[in-house]
Amino acid sequence: MIGRLAGRIDYRGSDHVLLDVGGVGYIVYVSDRTLMALPATGEFAALYTDLVVREDLLQLFGFPSLQEKEWHRLLTSVQGIGAKASMAILGALGADGTSRAIALGDWTAIRAAPGVGPKLAQRVVNELKDKAPAVMAMAGSLSEVIEPEPTAPASRPTAAPRPAPARSPAAQSDALSALINLGYQQGEAAAAVAQALGESPEAGASDLIRASLKLLAPKG
């Protein structure tokens, strides 16, 4: 099983890249979101991969993080969701957006993915809602690998480093863990963190915890 590839991008297609790894070219299918985030042709990149094996076809699908790869695995376990539909959902929402939508039971967000109808979107939410907290908790320990630090000749110009995202992915998992330690159930804690994160995407862990506690406080 090929779990991760790192190499130079030789070619960018509409839904895939050709990744040169030690002189061997791998065609890796990616979502629209991942394709836009990848560096230019000729630059180095790395992707976590999932190999789909069918009688007449072998296809590699690539993901910027293990969290997104895990969502792909879970999405394709739902009847009616194949690799194409999964990539459409992840392309529309990303790993964090998928986590929030499923934790909140927001099937309309899932429906926004091309080719996913309302019944299928509801099935995704119903079947995966209980699994969302565990995937959300993965975010703090898993880093994106789109652009690794390649070993390159000294004469090769290096691209300027990309700015780090304002919010650490650990904030989401830290907030979720804190709420569970306070006695909240995984499902309700995940839904509160997802809602708080949707309202303040750049919030740190402490801000997410405070906002989530307000959402979880008894009404009336």
Automatic annotation (TrEMBL):
It comes from the Bacteria. One of its GO terms (cellular component) is Holliday junction resolvase complex. GO terms for molecular function: ATP binding; four-way junction DNA binding; four-way junction helicase activity. GO terms for biological process: DNA recombination; DNA repair. InterPro entries: DNA_helicase_Holl-junc_RuvA_I, NA-bd_OB-fold, RuvA, RuvA_2-like, RuvA_C, RuvA_C_sf. Pfam families: HHH_5 (PF14520), RuvA_C (PF07499), RuvA_N (PF01330). Belongs to the RuvA family. Has three domains with a flexible linker between the domains II and III and assumes an 'L' shape. Domain III is highly mobile and contacts RuvB. This is Holliday junction branch migration complex subunit RuvA. It comes from Tropicimonas sediminicola. The lineage of its organism: Bacteria, Pseudomonadati, Pseudomonadota, Alphaproteobacteria, Rhodobacterales. The gene is ruvA.
